[in-house]
Hints:
CATH topology of the largest domain: Thrombin, subunit H
Strand content: 25-35%
CATH architecture of the largest domain: Beta Barrel
Number of strands: 30
Largest sheet: 8 strands, antiparallel
Radius of gyration: 28 Å
Amino acid sequence: MPVSYLPPSAMTLRRSRASRLALMAAVAALALGVAGGAPFSQAHAENAVSSSTAAALNAPASFADVVDKVKPAVVAIKVKGVAGDDDQEQTAGIPGLPGMSPDDPMFRFFKRFGEQQQGGHGHNHMTMSQGSGFIISADGYVVTNNHVVDHASDVEVTLDSGKTLPAKVIGVDKRTDLALLKISDGEKLPYVDWSNGNPRIGDWVIAVGNPFGLGGSVTAGIVSARGRDIGAGPYDDFLQIDAPVNRGNSGGPAFDAHGNVIGVNTAIYSPSGGSVGIGFAIPSEVARDVVASLKEKGAVARGWIGVKIQNVTPEIADSMGLKSTKGALISQPQTGAPAEAAGLKAGDVITAVNGEAVDGPRELARRIAALGPKKTVDLTYLRNGAEKSAKLTLGVLPEEKEARADNETVGGGSSVAGLGVEVAPAAQMRGVGGAGLVVTDVDPDSAAAQKGVRRGDVIVEAAGRPINSQSDLSSAIDAARQEGRKSVLLRLKSADGMKFVAVPTKAG
Protein backbone atom coordinates (compact mmCIF):
# COMPACT_ATOMS: atom_id res chain seq x y z
CA MET A 1 0.00 0.00 0.00
CA PRO A 2 1.59 3.31 -1.11
CA VAL A 3 2.10 5.68 1.82
CA SER A 4 3.50 9.20 1.67
CA TYR A 5 5.50 10.50 4.62
CA LEU A 6 6.31 14.08 5.54
CA PRO A 7 10.05 14.71 5.79
CA PRO A 8 11.27 15.94 9.18
CA SER A 9 11.88 19.40 7.80
CA ALA A 10 8.30 19.67 6.62
CA MET A 11 7.05 18.54 10.02
CA THR A 12 9.19 21.20 11.69
CA LEU A 13 7.94 23.90 9.33
CA ARG A 14 4.34 22.89 10.09
CA ARG A 15 4.71 23.32 13.83
CA SER A 16 1.54 25.11 14.87
CA ARG A 17 1.28 28.45 16.59
CA ALA A 18 -0.27 26.62 19.56
CA SER A 19 2.88 24.52 19.88
CA ARG A 20 5.05 27.61 19.90
CA LEU A 21 2.88 29.19 22.57
CA ALA A 22 3.04 26.02 24.63
CA LEU A 23 6.85 26.02 24.33
CA MET A 24 7.01 29.65 25.47
CA ALA A 25 4.72 28.88 28.41
CA ALA A 26 6.90 25.92 29.37
CA VAL A 27 10.00 28.12 29.34
CA ALA A 28 8.21 30.68 31.51
CA ALA A 29 7.11 27.99 33.93
CA LEU A 30 10.66 26.63 34.07
CA ALA A 31 11.98 30.08 34.91
CA LEU A 32 9.43 30.49 37.69
CA GLY A 33 10.28 27.08 39.08
CA VAL A 34 13.99 27.89 39.24
CA ALA A 35 13.34 31.31 40.79
CA GLY A 36 11.18 29.79 43.50
CA GLY A 37 13.65 27.04 44.23
CA ALA A 38 10.96 24.33 43.74
CA PRO A 39 11.84 21.01 42.08
CA PHE A 40 10.74 20.96 38.41
CA SER A 41 10.70 18.41 35.59
CA GLN A 42 10.26 18.97 31.84
CA ALA A 43 7.51 16.32 31.68
CA HIS A 44 5.65 18.05 34.51
CA ALA A 45 5.86 21.37 32.64
CA GLU A 46 4.58 19.86 29.39
CA ASN A 47 1.66 18.18 31.15
CA ALA A 48 0.78 21.39 32.97
CA VAL A 49 0.88 23.40 29.76
CA SER A 50 -1.14 20.80 27.89
CA SER A 51 -3.85 20.71 30.55
CA SER A 52 -4.06 24.48 30.97
CA THR A 53 -4.20 25.04 27.21
CA ALA A 54 -6.95 22.43 26.85
CA ALA A 55 -8.90 23.98 29.73
CA ALA A 56 -8.64 27.39 28.11
CA LEU A 57 -10.02 25.92 24.87
CA ASN A 58 -12.71 23.95 26.74
CA ALA A 59 -11.35 20.77 25.14
CA PRO A 60 -9.81 17.56 26.48
CA ALA A 61 -6.04 17.39 26.72
CA SER A 62 -6.42 14.10 24.87
CA PHE A 63 -9.23 12.26 23.07
CA ALA A 64 -7.96 8.92 24.35
CA ASP A 65 -10.65 8.47 27.01
CA VAL A 66 -13.43 9.21 24.51
CA VAL A 67 -11.89 6.86 21.94
CA ASP A 68 -11.58 4.08 24.53
CA LYS A 69 -15.29 4.53 25.24
CA VAL A 70 -16.61 4.53 21.65
CA LYS A 71 -14.13 2.57 19.53
CA PRO A 72 -15.46 -0.91 20.51
CA ALA A 73 -18.84 0.02 18.95
CA VAL A 74 -17.37 1.03 15.56
CA VAL A 75 -17.26 -1.76 12.97
CA ALA A 76 -15.81 -2.48 9.55
CA ILE A 77 -18.23 -3.65 6.86
CA LYS A 78 -17.37 -5.88 3.90
CA VAL A 79 -19.88 -6.36 1.10
CA LYS A 80 -20.10 -8.72 -1.86
CA GLY A 81 -22.60 -7.86 -4.55
CA VAL A 82 -23.55 -7.66 -8.21
CA ALA A 83 -23.93 -4.40 -10.15
CA GLY A 84 -25.14 -3.96 -13.71
CA ASP A 85 -23.87 -1.60 -16.39
CA ASP A 86 -26.41 1.04 -15.31
CA ASP A 87 -24.73 1.17 -11.92
CA GLN A 88 -21.16 1.33 -13.18
CA GLU A 89 -20.94 5.11 -12.95
CA GLN A 90 -22.06 4.87 -9.35
CA THR A 91 -19.86 1.93 -8.36
CA ALA A 92 -16.61 2.25 -10.30
CA GLY A 93 -13.64 3.61 -8.34
CA ILE A 94 -14.92 6.31 -6.02
CA PRO A 95 -18.55 6.73 -7.09
CA GLY A 96 -20.32 10.02 -7.54
CA LEU A 97 -23.12 11.21 -5.34
CA PRO A 98 -26.62 9.90 -6.06
CA GLY A 99 -28.73 12.46 -7.86
CA MET A 100 -25.76 14.35 -9.32
CA SER A 101 -25.36 14.06 -13.08
CA PRO A 102 -21.91 13.05 -14.40
CA ASP A 103 -22.23 16.13 -16.64
CA ASP A 104 -22.36 18.39 -13.58
CA PRO A 105 -19.08 20.34 -13.34
CA MET A 106 -18.91 19.50 -9.62
CA PHE A 107 -19.43 15.74 -10.18
CA ARG A 108 -15.76 14.80 -9.85
CA PHE A 109 -15.31 16.82 -6.66
CA PHE A 110 -18.12 15.36 -4.56
CA LYS A 111 -17.42 11.72 -3.80
CA ARG A 112 -19.00 9.01 -1.79
CA PHE A 113 -16.18 7.07 -0.25
CA GLY A 114 -16.86 3.38 0.09
CA GLU A 115 -13.71 1.42 -0.76
CA GLN A 116 -14.73 -0.58 -3.85
CA GLN A 117 -13.26 -3.01 -6.34
CA GLN A 118 -14.84 -4.63 -9.39
CA GLY A 119 -14.30 -7.83 -11.25
CA GLY A 120 -15.85 -9.90 -14.00
CA HIS A 121 -17.06 -9.05 -17.49
CA GLY A 122 -20.33 -8.54 -19.32
CA HIS A 123 -23.46 -6.79 -18.20
CA ASN A 124 -23.19 -7.73 -14.53
CA HIS A 125 -20.12 -7.07 -12.41
CA MET A 126 -19.08 -8.72 -9.18
CA THR A 127 -18.27 -6.02 -6.64
CA MET A 128 -16.34 -6.08 -3.39
CA SER A 129 -16.65 -3.05 -1.14
CA GLN A 130 -15.65 -1.94 2.33
CA GLY A 131 -17.16 0.66 4.55
CA SER A 132 -17.74 1.55 8.17
CA GLY A 133 -20.63 1.44 10.61
CA PHE A 134 -21.49 1.67 14.30
CA ILE A 135 -23.58 -0.35 16.74
CA ILE A 136 -26.50 1.53 18.31
CA SER A 137 -27.96 -1.16 20.59
CA ALA A 138 -26.76 -4.04 22.73
CA ASP A 139 -28.73 -6.50 20.58
CA GLY A 140 -26.70 -5.61 17.48
CA TYR A 141 -28.37 -2.98 15.29
CA VAL A 142 -25.73 -1.34 13.06
CA VAL A 143 -25.99 1.96 11.16
CA THR A 144 -24.14 2.56 7.89
CA ASN A 145 -24.67 4.22 4.49
CA ASN A 146 -27.04 2.83 1.89
CA HIS A 147 -24.35 3.11 -0.79
CA VAL A 148 -22.09 0.81 1.27
CA VAL A 149 -24.59 -2.07 1.13
CA ASP A 150 -26.27 -1.21 -2.19
CA HIS A 151 -26.54 -4.32 -4.43
CA ALA A 152 -25.27 -6.46 -1.55
CA SER A 153 -25.63 -10.22 -1.77
CA ASP A 154 -23.49 -10.86 1.30
CA VAL A 155 -22.63 -8.49 4.17
CA GLU A 156 -20.09 -9.14 6.92
CA VAL A 157 -19.35 -6.98 9.96
CA THR A 158 -15.98 -7.08 11.70
CA LEU A 159 -15.99 -5.96 15.32
CA ASP A 160 -13.21 -3.95 16.91
CA SER A 161 -12.11 -7.19 18.61
CA GLY A 162 -11.47 -8.72 15.18
CA LYS A 163 -14.45 -11.06 15.27
CA THR A 164 -16.46 -11.25 12.02
CA LEU A 165 -20.23 -11.76 11.98
CA PRO A 166 -22.77 -12.08 9.15
CA ALA A 167 -25.17 -9.14 8.89
CA LYS A 168 -28.76 -8.83 7.67
CA VAL A 169 -29.97 -5.67 5.94
CA ILE A 170 -33.06 -4.55 7.88
CA GLY A 171 -33.86 -1.58 5.69
CA VAL A 172 -32.39 1.19 3.56
CA ASP A 173 -33.33 4.77 2.76
CA LYS A 174 -31.82 5.96 -0.52
CA ARG A 175 -32.97 9.53 -0.10
CA THR A 176 -30.80 10.07 2.98
CA ASP A 177 -28.25 7.36 2.07
CA LEU A 178 -28.77 5.44 5.32
CA ALA A 179 -29.04 1.72 6.04
CA LEU A 180 -29.74 -0.38 9.12
CA LEU A 181 -28.13 -3.80 9.61
CA LYS A 182 -28.54 -6.47 12.28
CA ILE A 183 -25.86 -8.72 13.75
CA SER A 184 -25.96 -11.20 16.60
CA ASP A 185 -23.12 -12.40 18.81
CA GLY A 186 -25.18 -14.30 21.37
CA GLU A 187 -24.36 -11.71 24.00
CA LYS A 188 -24.60 -7.97 24.61
CA LEU A 189 -22.56 -5.85 22.25
CA PRO A 190 -20.91 -2.47 22.93
CA TYR A 191 -22.90 0.42 21.47
CA VAL A 192 -22.95 4.20 21.23
CA ASP A 193 -25.72 6.77 21.70
CA TRP A 194 -27.02 9.52 19.46
CA SER A 195 -26.36 13.09 20.49
CA ASN A 196 -29.45 14.91 21.75
CA GLY A 197 -28.15 18.36 20.88
CA ASN A 198 -27.07 20.13 17.71
CA PRO A 199 -23.33 20.73 17.37
CA ARG A 200 -22.14 24.28 16.88
CA ILE A 201 -19.70 25.39 14.24
CA GLY A 202 -16.28 25.10 15.85
CA ASP A 203 -17.15 22.17 18.14
CA TRP A 204 -14.72 19.25 18.27
CA VAL A 205 -15.55 16.21 16.14
CA ILE A 206 -13.92 12.75 16.22
CA ALA A 207 -14.25 10.36 13.26
CA VAL A 208 -13.69 6.63 13.70
CA GLY A 209 -13.82 4.20 10.80
CA ASN A 210 -12.26 1.81 8.32
CA PRO A 211 -10.32 3.95 5.79
CA PHE A 212 -8.71 1.90 3.02
CA GLY A 213 -9.60 -1.24 4.97
CA LEU A 214 -7.23 -0.34 7.81
CA GLY A 215 -9.97 -0.53 10.47
CA GLY A 216 -10.24 1.26 13.81
CA SER A 217 -8.70 4.53 12.61
CA VAL A 218 -9.32 7.73 14.57
CA THR A 219 -9.09 11.32 13.33
CA ALA A 220 -10.20 14.59 14.88
CA GLY A 221 -11.16 18.09 13.79
CA ILE A 222 -14.01 20.54 14.14
CA VAL A 223 -17.47 21.11 12.73
CA SER A 224 -16.78 23.50 9.85
CA ALA A 225 -20.35 24.29 8.77
CA ARG A 226 -23.96 23.18 9.06
CA GLY A 227 -26.82 22.80 6.60
CA ARG A 228 -24.68 22.04 3.56
CA ASP A 229 -26.50 21.22 0.30
CA ILE A 230 -24.19 19.12 -1.88
CA GLY A 231 -26.70 18.08 -4.53
CA ALA A 232 -27.28 14.58 -3.17
CA GLY A 233 -31.05 14.94 -2.78
CA PRO A 234 -33.99 17.05 -1.58
CA TYR A 235 -33.19 16.42 2.10
CA ASP A 236 -29.57 17.61 2.04
CA ASP A 237 -28.69 19.07 5.43
CA PHE A 238 -25.09 17.92 5.93
CA LEU A 239 -22.59 18.76 8.62
CA GLN A 240 -19.26 19.78 7.13
CA ILE A 241 -16.29 18.52 9.14
CA ASP A 242 -12.53 18.77 8.72
CA ALA A 243 -11.65 15.55 10.59
CA PRO A 244 -9.88 13.58 7.81
CA VAL A 245 -12.08 10.85 6.29
CA ASN A 246 -11.20 8.75 3.25
CA ARG A 247 -12.35 5.82 1.17
CA GLY A 248 -13.75 3.18 3.51
CA ASN A 249 -14.95 5.74 6.09
CA SER A 250 -18.46 5.70 4.56
CA GLY A 251 -21.10 4.95 7.17
CA GLY A 252 -18.78 5.54 10.10
CA PRO A 253 -19.69 7.78 13.03
CA ALA A 254 -18.67 11.34 13.80
CA PHE A 255 -18.57 11.85 17.58
CA ASP A 256 -18.64 14.92 19.78
CA ALA A 257 -16.12 15.34 22.60
CA HIS A 258 -18.44 13.39 24.94
CA GLY A 259 -18.60 10.32 22.71
CA ASN A 260 -22.11 10.86 21.34
CA VAL A 261 -22.83 10.40 17.63
CA ILE A 262 -23.42 13.75 15.92
CA GLY A 263 -23.31 12.47 12.35
CA VAL A 264 -22.82 9.63 9.85
CA ASN A 265 -19.84 10.23 7.54
CA THR A 266 -21.09 10.03 3.97
CA ALA A 267 -19.19 12.13 1.42
CA ILE A 268 -16.05 14.12 0.82
CA TYR A 269 -15.08 17.01 -1.40
CA SER A 270 -12.07 15.64 -3.23
CA PRO A 271 -10.39 16.53 -6.52
CA SER A 272 -7.90 13.69 -5.93
CA GLY A 273 -10.02 11.00 -4.23
CA GLY A 274 -8.33 11.49 -0.85
CA SER A 275 -9.15 13.74 2.08
CA VAL A 276 -8.56 17.45 1.64
CA GLY A 277 -10.21 18.36 4.95
CA ILE A 278 -13.77 18.76 3.67
CA GLY A 279 -16.07 15.93 4.68
CA PHE A 280 -19.85 15.69 5.00
CA ALA A 281 -21.88 13.84 7.60
CA ILE A 282 -25.62 13.22 7.92
CA PRO A 283 -26.57 14.99 11.18
CA SER A 284 -27.82 12.87 14.05
CA GLU A 285 -31.20 14.62 14.19
CA VAL A 286 -31.89 13.35 10.65
CA ALA A 287 -30.24 9.93 10.99
CA ARG A 288 -31.86 9.11 14.32
CA ASP A 289 -35.43 9.45 12.99
CA VAL A 290 -34.69 7.60 9.74
CA VAL A 291 -33.01 4.73 11.60
CA ALA A 292 -35.93 4.48 14.05
CA SER A 293 -38.33 4.16 11.11
CA LEU A 294 -36.14 1.54 9.41
CA LYS A 295 -36.04 -0.46 12.64
CA GLU A 296 -39.80 -0.29 13.11
CA LYS A 297 -41.04 -0.65 9.53
CA GLY A 298 -38.04 -1.51 7.36
CA ALA A 299 -38.69 1.65 5.32
CA VAL A 300 -39.34 5.37 5.69
CA ALA A 301 -42.81 6.74 4.88
CA ARG A 302 -42.71 10.47 4.11
CA GLY A 303 -45.41 13.03 3.53
CA TRP A 304 -45.94 14.15 -0.08
CA ILE A 305 -47.82 16.95 -1.81
CA GLY A 306 -46.75 16.12 -5.37
CA VAL A 307 -44.97 19.19 -6.74
CA LYS A 308 -41.63 19.92 -8.32
CA ILE A 309 -40.20 22.98 -6.56
CA GLN A 310 -37.22 25.28 -6.89
CA ASN A 311 -35.58 28.32 -5.30
CA VAL A 312 -36.88 31.83 -5.80
CA THR A 313 -33.76 33.58 -7.02
CA PRO A 314 -33.48 37.40 -7.02
CA GLU A 315 -33.96 37.34 -10.81
CA ILE A 316 -37.08 35.19 -10.52
CA ALA A 317 -38.44 37.41 -7.73
CA ASP A 318 -37.90 40.48 -9.92
CA SER A 319 -39.54 38.89 -12.94
CA MET A 320 -42.59 37.89 -10.83
CA GLY A 321 -42.82 41.19 -8.97
CA LEU A 322 -42.13 39.55 -5.59
CA LYS A 323 -40.65 41.51 -2.68
CA SER A 324 -38.79 38.52 -1.20
CA THR A 325 -36.91 35.40 -2.30
CA LYS A 326 -38.39 33.38 0.58
CA GLY A 327 -40.50 30.35 -0.23
CA ALA A 328 -40.57 27.51 -2.74
CA LEU A 329 -41.62 28.07 -6.35
CA ILE A 330 -43.84 25.36 -7.89
CA SER A 331 -42.52 24.58 -11.34
CA GLN A 332 -44.74 21.56 -11.93
CA PRO A 333 -47.64 20.04 -9.97
CA GLN A 334 -48.02 16.31 -10.52
CA THR A 335 -51.25 15.07 -12.05
CA GLY A 336 -53.60 13.63 -9.44
CA ALA A 337 -51.35 14.63 -6.51
CA PRO A 338 -52.66 16.35 -3.35
CA ALA A 339 -51.34 19.77 -4.45
CA GLU A 340 -53.18 19.67 -7.77
CA ALA A 341 -56.37 18.50 -6.03
CA ALA A 342 -56.07 21.50 -3.69
CA GLY A 343 -55.81 23.89 -6.64
CA LEU A 344 -52.08 24.73 -6.57
CA LYS A 345 -50.56 25.62 -9.94
CA ALA A 346 -47.20 26.17 -11.59
CA GLY A 347 -45.91 29.61 -10.64
CA ASP A 348 -47.36 29.57 -7.12
CA VAL A 349 -44.84 30.22 -4.34
CA ILE A 350 -45.39 28.27 -1.11
CA THR A 351 -44.38 30.49 1.82
CA ALA A 352 -45.66 28.69 4.94
CA VAL A 353 -46.78 25.30 6.29
CA ASN A 354 -49.33 25.35 9.12
CA GLY A 355 -48.59 29.03 9.63
CA GLU A 356 -44.83 28.59 9.96
CA ALA A 357 -42.74 30.31 7.29
CA VAL A 358 -40.48 28.28 5.01
CA ASP A 359 -37.28 29.76 3.65
CA GLY A 360 -36.93 27.60 0.57
CA PRO A 361 -37.47 24.25 -1.19
CA ARG A 362 -35.22 22.18 1.08
CA GLU A 363 -37.00 23.34 4.21
CA LEU A 364 -40.41 22.75 2.61
CA ALA A 365 -39.42 19.24 1.48
CA ARG A 366 -38.13 18.32 4.95
CA ARG A 367 -41.17 19.77 6.75
CA ILE A 368 -43.68 17.97 4.53
CA ALA A 369 -41.72 14.71 4.65
CA ALA A 370 -41.45 14.82 8.44
CA LEU A 371 -45.20 15.31 8.91
CA GLY A 372 -45.84 11.92 7.31
CA PRO A 373 -48.67 10.60 5.15
CA LYS A 374 -52.37 11.23 5.82
CA LYS A 375 -51.72 14.40 7.83
CA THR A 376 -53.81 17.47 7.01
CA VAL A 377 -51.82 20.67 6.47
CA ASP A 378 -52.51 24.31 5.68
CA LEU A 379 -50.31 25.77 2.96
CA THR A 380 -49.87 29.50 2.45
CA TYR A 381 -48.80 30.57 -1.03
CA LEU A 382 -48.50 33.55 -3.35
CA ARG A 383 -50.23 33.70 -6.73
CA ASN A 384 -49.72 36.77 -8.90
CA GLY A 385 -48.53 38.61 -5.79
CA ALA A 386 -51.66 37.83 -3.74
CA GLU A 387 -51.51 35.61 -0.64
CA LYS A 388 -53.78 32.57 -0.65
CA SER A 389 -54.17 29.39 1.41
CA ALA A 390 -55.08 25.77 0.78
CA LYS A 391 -55.84 22.80 3.02
CA LEU A 392 -54.78 19.35 1.83
CA THR A 393 -54.11 15.82 3.06
CA LEU A 394 -50.59 14.57 2.48
CA GLY A 395 -50.00 11.49 0.38
CA VAL A 396 -47.15 8.97 0.53
CA LEU A 397 -43.93 9.95 -1.22
CA PRO A 398 -43.48 7.48 -4.10
CA GLU A 399 -40.32 5.38 -4.20
CA GLU A 400 -39.53 6.13 -7.82
CA LYS A 401 -38.67 9.54 -9.18
CA GLU A 402 -41.12 11.32 -11.40
CA ALA A 403 -40.79 10.32 -15.06
CA ARG A 404 -38.45 12.57 -17.00
CA ALA A 405 -39.14 14.17 -20.35
CA ASP A 406 -37.17 12.80 -23.27
CA ASN A 407 -36.82 15.39 -25.99
CA GLU A 408 -34.89 14.32 -29.08
CA THR A 409 -34.23 17.47 -31.10
CA VAL A 410 -32.51 18.48 -34.30
CA GLY A 411 -30.95 21.76 -35.35
CA GLY A 412 -32.33 24.42 -37.62
CA GLY A 413 -33.85 26.93 -35.21
CA SER A 414 -34.05 30.72 -35.46
CA SER A 415 -32.11 33.07 -33.20
CA VAL A 416 -33.90 35.12 -30.53
CA ALA A 417 -32.30 38.55 -30.33
CA GLY A 418 -30.51 39.25 -27.05
CA LEU A 419 -31.31 35.85 -25.51
CA GLY A 420 -28.42 33.82 -26.92
CA VAL A 421 -30.56 30.90 -28.04
CA GLU A 422 -31.99 29.49 -31.25
CA VAL A 423 -35.51 28.06 -31.14
CA ALA A 424 -38.00 26.20 -33.32
CA PRO A 425 -41.69 25.35 -32.80
CA ALA A 426 -42.04 22.07 -30.95
CA ALA A 427 -44.94 21.06 -33.21
CA GLN A 428 -42.55 21.06 -36.19
CA MET A 429 -39.76 19.10 -34.50
CA ARG A 430 -39.40 15.41 -35.18
CA GLY A 431 -39.74 13.38 -31.98
CA VAL A 432 -41.08 16.30 -29.94
CA GLY A 433 -44.41 17.76 -30.99
CA GLY A 434 -46.82 19.60 -28.75
CA ALA A 435 -46.79 23.24 -27.65
CA GLY A 436 -43.80 25.45 -26.98
CA LEU A 437 -40.46 26.30 -28.54
CA VAL A 438 -37.58 23.83 -28.62
CA VAL A 439 -34.14 25.28 -27.86
CA THR A 440 -32.05 24.01 -30.78
CA ASP A 441 -28.82 25.80 -29.86
CA VAL A 442 -27.41 27.88 -26.98
CA ASP A 443 -24.54 30.33 -27.05
CA PRO A 444 -22.25 29.00 -24.26
CA ASP A 445 -21.28 32.57 -23.32
CA SER A 446 -24.87 33.80 -23.07
CA ALA A 447 -26.81 34.63 -19.92
CA ALA A 448 -29.32 31.92 -20.89
CA ALA A 449 -26.58 29.29 -20.78
CA GLN A 450 -25.36 30.60 -17.43
CA LYS A 451 -28.90 30.33 -16.05
CA GLY A 452 -29.15 26.68 -17.09
CA VAL A 453 -30.94 26.77 -20.44
CA ARG A 454 -29.80 23.77 -22.46
CA ARG A 455 -30.20 22.47 -26.00
CA GLY A 456 -33.33 20.30 -26.08
CA ASP A 457 -35.23 22.29 -23.45
CA VAL A 458 -38.75 23.29 -24.45
CA ILE A 459 -39.90 26.84 -23.58
CA VAL A 460 -43.60 26.51 -22.78
CA GLU A 461 -44.23 29.89 -21.11
CA ALA A 462 -42.63 33.32 -20.90
CA ALA A 463 -43.82 35.85 -18.30
CA GLY A 464 -46.81 33.60 -17.65
CA ARG A 465 -47.89 33.54 -21.30
CA PRO A 466 -48.05 30.35 -23.43
CA ILE A 467 -45.33 30.33 -26.08
CA ASN A 468 -45.76 28.66 -29.49
CA SER A 469 -43.72 30.88 -31.81
CA GLN A 470 -40.61 33.01 -31.86
CA SER A 471 -42.77 36.14 -32.04
CA ASP A 472 -44.61 35.05 -28.88
CA LEU A 473 -41.26 34.82 -27.06
CA SER A 474 -39.98 38.13 -28.42
CA SER A 475 -43.23 39.87 -27.45
CA ALA A 476 -43.02 38.52 -23.88
CA ILE A 477 -39.43 39.75 -23.56
CA ASP A 478 -40.36 43.18 -24.95
CA ALA A 479 -43.32 43.46 -22.57
CA ALA A 480 -41.18 42.58 -19.55
CA ARG A 481 -38.60 45.16 -20.64
CA GLN A 482 -41.27 47.86 -21.02
CA GLU A 483 -42.58 47.06 -17.52
CA GLY A 484 -39.08 47.74 -16.16
CA ARG A 485 -38.30 44.10 -15.41
CA LYS A 486 -34.63 43.18 -15.42
CA SER A 487 -35.51 39.56 -16.19
CA VAL A 488 -38.21 37.58 -17.93
CA LEU A 489 -39.44 34.33 -16.38
CA LEU A 490 -39.31 31.31 -18.69
CA ARG A 491 -40.95 27.99 -17.87
CA LEU A 492 -38.99 25.14 -19.41
CA LYS A 493 -39.63 21.45 -19.92
CA SER A 494 -36.25 19.75 -19.55
CA ALA A 495 -34.86 16.28 -18.97
CA ASP A 496 -35.49 16.84 -15.25
CA GLY A 497 -39.11 17.93 -15.68
CA MET A 498 -40.51 21.45 -15.52
CA LYS A 499 -38.51 24.36 -14.12
CA PHE A 500 -38.50 28.16 -14.10
CA VAL A 501 -35.51 30.18 -15.31
CA ALA A 502 -35.20 33.96 -15.20
CA VAL A 503 -33.11 35.37 -18.05
CA PRO A 504 -32.12 39.03 -18.54
CA THR A 505 -34.32 41.19 -20.75
CA LYS A 506 -31.19 42.92 -22.04
CA ALA A 507 -28.13 41.30 -23.53
CA GLY A 508 -25.14 41.28 -21.16
